[in-house]
Amino acid sequence: MPPLTPADGAPSGRGGRPRDPSRDGAIRAAILQVLAESGYGALTMDAVASAAGVGKATIYRRWRTKSDLVADAVAELSQKSIEPPDTGSLEGDLRLLLRWLVDAVNGPLGAATLSLLSALPHEPELREAFHQGPMEVWSSTFRAVWERAEARGEVQPTVLGSAVASTASSPILQRWLFGGGPVPAEFADEVLTDVVLPLVQARRAA
């Protein structure tokens, strides 16, 4: 990603008023908003400044290039997660987690993620940051749920990392990516009841 130069309207130095940390949250939210509404190609300093309701100089005090903007967007996505549920049962934990996943992919988080996914094949650094950031955060949340189920004796140790464990999130993600529309809220419960739990029981019986 080429850096944005002063010709794009950036100030040539870092002088001026000191940075106001209170604006950071609004600006990071604006980055995700631009990604969600307009896509990766439209992520510019001007667009973020307009969405955040601040001057462009405020943006340049924090990020000098589009690369910096995207890196912070990826870091922000890593924070948009859920604590691993601990209801006392695998069924209860997965029900909450899958419902959260449906809400996430249907909302601004999902739209922002989709816009970044389109850029990953062409941006190795972004791809690495995405896999080490939000992908690892989301994967670790599901992993924690299966590990707790194993500790409770609900599943065998071999389930973690298996195709059975993958069936929890894969149908939702597949429908999100290829379904052409929002994932129905009830789909989360359907996946759990009709796919995941029967597979867990069949594996336990075997």
**Low-confidence regions:** 1-17
How big a fraction of the residues is strand?
A: under 5%
Termini, distance in Å?
A: 52 Å
Describe the sheet with the most strands.
none
Instruction: Quickly count the helices.
Output: 10
Q: At the fourth CATH level, what is the homologous superfamily of the largest domain?
A: Tetracycline Repressor, domain 2
Fill in the CATH topology of the largest domain. Tetracycline Repressor, domain 2
The structural class is mainly alpha
Shape: elongated
Any descriptors?
206 residues, mainly alpha, Tetracycline Repressor, domain 2, 2 domains, elongated, disordered N terminus
Secondary structure: elements and pairs:
Elements: H1 24-38, H2 45-52, H3 56-60, H4 66-79, H5 90-106, H6 108-117, H7 124-151, H8 163-166, H9 170-178, H10 187-205
